[in-house]
Model the fold of this input.
Amino acid sequence: MIPANALSKLSQLEALYMSNSFDRWEADGIRNQGNASLAELEYLSHLMTLEIQILDANILPKHLFSNGLQSYRILIGDGWDWNGNYETSRMLKLNFKTSIHSEYGVKVLLRETEDLYLDEVRGAENVLYDIDGDGFPQLKHLHVQNNTVIQHIINSTKWAACDAFPILESLILENLMNLEKICHGQLAAGSFNKLGILEVSNCNRLTNLFSLSTARCLLQLRVMEVRSCPNMEAIVIDEDQDSNEEVVEFNQLRSLKLDGLPHLRSFRSKMKKAPPGIESRHKQILTADEPAFEEFLSEELSLFNRMVAFSNLENLNLREMNDMKKRFQRLEKLNVDNCFSLQEIYQLEGFNVIEAFELRKLSIKSLPSLKHVWRKDPQGVFTFQNLKSVEVSNCDVLKNLFPASIAESLLQLENLTIIECGVEEIVAKPEDVEPAPYYCFKFPQLTSLKLIELSELRSFYPGTHISEWQKLKCLEVRNCRKVRKFGLEEVHEEGQHSIPIQQPLLLLEKMSPNLEELTLEHKDLIAIQHGQFSFQHFSKLKVLTLSNLQNRSQIFLIGFLKAVHYVETIVVESSNLEELFSCEGFTLVRNLKLFNVDNLKQIWDEDSRLKPVLQHLETLSVNGCNSLTNIVPSSSSFPNLATLEFLNKLEKLQVEYCDSAEIVFDLEGLSVDDGHTELLPQLSKLHLANLPMLRYLWNKDPLGILEFNNLRLLHVENCNSLKNIFTWSTALCLMQLEQIKLSNCNTIEEIIEKEGPEEATSSADKMILPSLKFVDLECLPKFSSFYSGSSNLECLSLKS
Done:
């Protein structure tokens, strides 16, 4: 509260800052009670700097702000906050329910403002003419939003020609439902010359952004983003029928995003006259839904044709658009996704000059109609020798990816990923020319090859060929049932090598000996068992993923895993195994990850020998194993406790989405008197999530069996049968615990279980968690206390 008449007495005041503070101005003039009124500010004749928010524009004195402020940030009307970059010294945000023409003081501010926000300003169909007829000579940033009245930002037919927005740097237009044109009429040459950022979204009546004459002014445009304009048909409309040879150059444009423009046909389009008898509200260019207009369309109409140039474009993002074809030489990154009618990416016909594309990264996703990335083999006229990464997914009708000549030029390619596509071969056989009798595809820089869920894949190339992968480090070929993955060159009696008639996807002799990550399936284990290829080719392997295993895979798995004792990480995913390890070995494995092994009932066989297995295991992750009831088995499964001591180097345990898991640590049958060292002495991170049946972390007091002396981090979320976490005796050992996070556990009542007989007879009068710094509790409807026992709880390091 600011008492009435207090401000008017500060006659020498030069600066008044009231951002994020007082905004309860009285409507009347100066009086002796209640809050301060805006009329008091008229008495501050020396005021040069002002920050103020006025929620009700109706209480503005007519001549307020007419005394020459030099610096200001003023918010008028509701719905505003103080967020912003504040790069300028004069900022104004307006939301007027009444006509702006009656506010003389505000119009004075508008002439000087540098950063202007307009929201629902009445009486302004044309921003430049109706709000400021001088062209906003000082304005650097303009943001217009949520308006149903504005038809034009500039209407040059209503005002004397002058430079419009000569120093404007950014223009943002949002939710202008009646906006028909940004610029109507001819602009002076000095207009928009400094514009660097243009963002337009949710302008439903807008059919184009600029005329050709306006586009000529955009010399500094760096960023253009157009989103959710359902009737947008072109970005630049060419009103001059004689300008066919003029190329519009956006030489400074670095980033272009076009999203949600279902009727966009071309970046630049001619203004067309409607055929006789056709009534359309889009007279400027062709519409997509009126067949009579289709005869105007060129057969080679492209989204980006030769009449526009982007010599320095670095980032192109296209989403939810139709009927597009693209030509770019200097583009480095191309992302295309969710364009449901797109059938072709690059159309390269009709050129006879050798061009080298600078594209480095190509990402194509969810294009259900895509038939070709490159429709015809350019035969060396176009090359993509700079391409380093290609990622393609969810393109159902795409039959192949590269023409042969382009595949031969990919000497810099480092990553190739294809997921869930209709691809039958990676490289297409030339159709219009005689294919070479023999191809050699070399990928000297490729380190990652992933081919996943390609049910129709039959070969890398349908003709005679070899492919070389001398730097390959990561190989994942999964659920590609029609292709043979590995093969060997055939050796004849005279010692000559030849390519097998039925060519595999990869020849082992042509692969890198330094492969570090490999995915194998059941059929691959059978091939190894039958001697079709040796695992000696993968002697540097560090990460082994086993996918689509079956119960009968156990026959091959035992001997196979003994042979890969150098592997550090084993991942088992999407398999039907009921048990996993029933053998010794794997002494170097540090990480074991199980994903979606639905039928897995136990990780270790009850007949395991006494010799420790997985004795170096540091991380165990279990996810989506819905038949597991416990993670760490009890002594009833392992009669000799030494068998369980393979977990004594375990540092991180993560269990998620296991619907049947009731207990994490099954301690049934274990006793403090067994004379063994405590289990899990190195465990520092425990993460349990989405375990609906989990009732206990352990099924008996772990004192003397599990003590968690090194536990630092505990996360539990979405475990709706769990009532508490620690017993009182276990909590006494949590000397290193630093962070506890519990969320969305509907039955959790407390973190440390209420006292039992041990606590009642203990001489300890307090419980100390000396290292605990962070406790995060969220959505625990039955939570009553951290600890409800009789001992005092001290957390001396707690921060939040």
Remarks:
- The first helix runs from residue 104 to 112.
